[in-house]
Amino acid sequence: MAMMRLRREDPRVVGSFRLHRRLGAGGMGVVYLGSDKKGQRVALKVIRPDLAEDQEFRSRFAREVSAARRIRGGCTARLVAADLEADRPWFATQYVPGPSLHDKVADEGPLSAAEVAAVGAALSEGLVAVHEAGVVHRDLKPSNILLSPKGPRIIDFGIAWATGASTLTHVGTAVGSPGFLAPEQVRGAAVTPATDVFSLGATLAYASMGDSPFGHGSSEVMLYRVVHEEAQLQGVPDALAPLVRACLAKDPEERPSTLQLSLRLKEIAAREAQGLADVRPPAPRSPDSERASGRLADAYPDREPRRQGGRATPPRGASASRNGGPSSSRGGRSVPPSRGNGSGRNGAPRQGTPARPRPRTGTSSRGGTRPGTGARRPAPRTGSGLRPANPRLLRQRLFVFVVVTLVVAFGIALVQGCQGPS
């Protein structure tokens, strides 16, 4: 949470607390960072001087203190002290370190699906405790959620109200933040726990997209969209979109309960976290597994064996046959396997015929060359599927051909010379 220096008009001491910094200011008053004589840090909220004489604001402030006292659970900051009869009423709650959800998204961008689900599950569980205390927050939004090291915390119950109360402070005036208000709040109908569910859905959409699901505009435009238009959830992850859309249903009866939300979001958070853990480079395949099942690139196009120089290569010292098994070396030449072993032209085993490795003399049963055999690596295949001629072998054949030709020519000349002229 951003802190600011105290201004000249700010008090230095309130009650038994010494004030150190400004934490923020809202429609009701200013929130300060303070500490007591034991060094315990608190967030202390003081009503603005111009509102201290307004009985309506005093009543709202008293409701906030009452709500903080009634709620039990780790979702909210614990109430430490309060004075509702002071010239400027105030109350202090346990200080919660950490940025607001609004600041977190504004500074670092939208959260991942796993993070949004985890935050939503904790907030839903917290709202269960709030609603069990007979309180409806009525102003749940990203700036009223603090991301502490121990989990998210809901703050600012300044406009909280007992279940079933009207949301109107004055006739035709909705209390809350446009874009996160529920349709029934805009219409002035009674609020229920489902009201907070709608606001939670809009908050989760904001955390996922980095923007309000109802866009931007004046208060009147935003309130109209909340009542009459569907939320825009294009940026919400697929795992969360159906649940968020259910939270933003116009009819309160169609929204899930906070308990249902908590359970469902916990499931999504666990699944998404597991999915992120599974996104890792695949372990390298052993050469044996590739040989035993033939060439994986032919059977499963999305999985390819190890490649070197743009082609699949067997391990060093072993020659891969067309059916994936090893072949022996005779006189330095690779001997291709028989075509009757059920392998196709491209080396992939024919359907229904498993490819089996065929160990030969000089190779181990696992396709590796035993030490001392001197087997050579096979020459690379050409595009037609045949190996190119061995250059050394070509030279040997050429030498033999030339020697034989010379010997034959010499023999013919010798025979003709012995016969003489006829």
Could you describe the largest sheet, including whether it forms a barrel?
6 strands, antiparallel
Name of the CATH first level of the domain at 101-277: Mainly Alpha
The coarse silhouette is elongated
Element pattern in H and E? EEEEHEEHHEEEEEEHHHHHHHEEEEH
How would you sum up this structure, described in words?
The structure is a single chain. The protein is an alpha+beta fold and 422 residues long. Among the domains are: 13-94, Phosphorylase Kinase, domain 1; 101-277, Transferase(Phosphotransferase), domain 1, CATH 1.10.510. The protein has helices at residues 55-70, 101-108, 113-132, 183-187, 193-209, 219-228, 241-247, 258-278, 287-292, 296-299, 391-419, and strands at 13-14, 17-25, 29-35, 41-47, 79-83, 90-94, 135-136, 145-148, 151-154, 161-162, 168-170, 173-174, 307-308, 311-312, 329-330, 333-334. The strands form 6 sheets. The chain has a 6-stranded antiparallel β-sheet with strand order 1-2-3-4-6-5, with helices on one face. A hairpin with a 2-residue loop joins strand 8 (145-148) and strand 9 (151-154). Helix 3 packs antiparallel against helix 5, helix 3 packs antiparallel against helix 8 (258-278) and helix 5 packs antiparallel against helix 7 (241-247). The longest helix has 29 residues, at 391-419.
